[in-house]
Structure formats: C-alpha cells, structure tokens
Description:
With 498 residues, the protein is an alpha/beta fold.
Amino acid sequence: MADQYILEMKNITKLFPGVRALDNVDFCVKSGEVRALVGENGAGKSTLIKILTGVYKATSGSITLMNQKIDNPDSATIKRMGLSCIYQDQNFVPYFSIAESLFMDDLPQKNYGLIDQKKLFEKAEALLKRLNINLEPHLLMGDLTVSEQQLIQIAAAVHGKASIMLLDEPTAPLSSDEVERLFQIINDLKKDGVTIIYISHRLEEIFRIADTVSVLRNGKMIDTLNIKETNQDEIIKLMVGKDVEEKYPKTKVKIGEEIFRIDNYTSDKVKNVSFDLRKGEVFGIYGVVGAGKTELAKLIFGADKKEDGRLYIDGQECVIESPNAAIKKGIAFVSEDRRKEGLVGDFSICRNITLASLWKYIKRIFINFKRERTVSQTYVGELNIKTPTIETLVRTLSGGNQQKVILSKWLSSDAKIFILDQPTIGVDVGAKTEIYRLIGTLVSNGAGVIFISSEIPEIINLTDRVGVMKHGEMVKILDTKETDPQKLLAYALKGGEL
C-alpha cells in the first residue's frame, strides 16, 4: 500500500466573506510518507486542514480517505477513520487534568461506569514517562503553559494510534530538547507505517523529517517536491514569490540611558529577578520550557501577583499591579497566546488595533470612527496584514496576520517598553523578517524591547544582551556578541558554562 494514496483532496475551494481562502487545491498523500505542508501565513494551510477534519466545510471539491469518499467530513468520523490532528490553535478543556485529557476517549472504568482514577493516572504517568514529558498527570490543562499544553496534545495523538497524524506547527512553542523528542516520536511513528502531515514554517525541520513538501501560496497549490531534490531557497521562492534577502535583519542603534529596571522581582513562579533595559536596546530572555520566561513577562505587565521586588521607569519607582496600570506607564505586552490574551476574535481588525489607545479617538462620548479607520488602515499597510478590509473579523485571519494586528495595537499606543513573548510563533519566514524589521523600527524610535524566545538563532542575531532563565531565576546576563548557542544552552540547562 506504500505507493497508494491514503488521502486525496481534489479541487478544494473555500470561500469566506470577501476572501477566497483556497482556490481549486489538490493535496494527495501516500501511505507511510511524511508530507510537509508550507506556505506564508494566510496561504491557506490551516484552512485546508480544517476542511479535512470537518471544522470547515469546503465550498467545492472532494475528499477520499483510505479509499472511501467522504461527502461531509466531521471531526468524529475522521477520528474514527484513523486521523488524529493537533491544531496550531489548541483545543482542550482547561479544568480537565492531564490524565483526563490524554485518555478522554478511553477512560478506564470500574463497576457501575465509575472512572478508575488509580488506573487512569497510572496509564497517564506511563505515557508521559515514555515520551520523557516531565509533568504530573494530576495538573489541570488550564494551569499549564502553552508549550506544556502542546506537549500533552502531542502525547494524546501518539496514544490514539492513528493511521494519519496531522501536526500543525507542533514545535512552535517547544524548546530545542523537546523538538528533538518530537522528531524521535515522528521517526518511530513512520517506522510503524503511520502517515504524517507536518505543517511548519521552520524549513530546517522539514528537511530533517519530511519525504515530500507541498507549497501553498495565496490559496493555491504551487508545487509538491521531493525533499531530496530541492533546497530551502527554492521553497522560500515558491512560498513568497520572491527572494528573502535577510533572515535576521538587525538595525544598528546607539543604545542610550536606562529606561526600565526591576530589582528582585519575585512571585510564586519567579525568584529574585533583576535586570535593566536601555533606550534603543533589545534585551533577550532565553530558557527552556518551564524556565519562567512567560511568568516573568506577565509579572512585569501586572497580570500576575508580585510578592516582592521593585520596578523603575526612567529612574522613578512605579507600582504596577494590573495590566491597565502597565499600559498607562507605557508598557506593551505581546503574549505568546495571542488568541486568548492578545485579541478579541469577534471584533474587527480596526477595533483590535485601537483597543489599547481607544481614548485617542474619543471626544466627549463619541468615537471618531473616520480617524480610527485611517490609523488602522495605515498599520494594515505598513505591516502587510493580508485582509480584504479592516472590518474583517480578526478571528478569521491566519496566525501570522493576527500577530501583526496585535503588534499594530501596541504601535498605535504610546508604549516605549515592549515585552514580546515568542512573537514569531507560527509565523512564516517572510512575516518573521517583517517582525524583525519592526523591532528595529521600535528601537530606532527610542523604545526598548524585551524579546522572549525559545529560538537560539533569534536570540543570538537580534538581541544586544540576553538574560538566561532556569527554574524561575535569571541565572546569567550575557552580552550577545560574546556568547554562542552552546553557552546559552549550558546556562539554561545547568545554570553554568560547560
């Protein structure tokens, strides 16, 4: 069956109001292969997959799975037929434990239909141990970080023993060690004959694990290539229709005086962290999953409760106990979980862009809608947000374009201190470059940027200094020019140099 198609999607078209998301797309995958699916944000990757899994209904086209034509696929039918999917926008029940999430469709039972809690947690512990995921099975999903939630969904998919496993940006929130662990899982699944559909913007990954790669651009299938017969430059050209010259553009800026400082900042998850940020500086924060990076960002922004420590802006001590207080002091926060914490999905692009500075557009009790639309349209153009109109609901945009809307929101405010938590998660190579250039624009205009990332190349190439975190502590602050990947990893993993 290795040469037969296990999945055939033909002539798939999907229309949203004002948007042709997919245009006559063919996507056929052979049994046992690892097929990568790439394209810029808004190219149609997630839409294609959501049609396959029954989340969206195609406007036209046909789907054949395991030689069986499916007229109206739904998620339950697809899952029963052996397809397991992990989306870029994660779905889980926040008050379920890890164990319950892993075995939601396979809960061990005792007499009278009662759940066998002991057996449930034993099975969960065994699965987590097998995959080297160091989390307690009784923890609630809603209490986990985005990275940890992603790992649990991957573990659940592995448990499901699917014939086809579909992974949508699975490594986006993962550390380098967790990425290697995932690749080992994928290789093991491939040996067992499982077909993998792998969506990623990280081209170096697909060259490690994929057999073939399909390229989408502007809703059209451009080409499908044998991975051994192509290279990254060719794929990038197919994705964007042009060359991407600079991978990590960094603007040269004269670093000025201190504009921000925290001393001994402490919470239940952050321990005595101190660092300063200067005008025109990009200060990086690096660490593996669970190191406390996101927790520190939320603590600074007033989203989490502080137990001790002091914060200074322009030399003056400030008390920030809420996000509203942080915004008033000129602090912006781009969360790693953009859908939950960065956007209002049912608001338009225009309204999301002006949310943090709506007071600028209000005179007495009336909103100046014309000015609001003009400003929003300016940012849509400058950040190349792909949309037919600024009135489009932001939830219909791709992940990368949603991230650009969030950045526009803070650009339109009076912020001078920008906390960017994993800002390029799920963002394609072209959009990443745009975000990197935007960071350069921010510091050129006198802002300071706190740049949190799990990608060492980003930290090395974009920051001026980097604070390395481990178990909630900032164990070392390094001059980026004087460090290297090995040194960063050594501090992140063991708290000191090799």
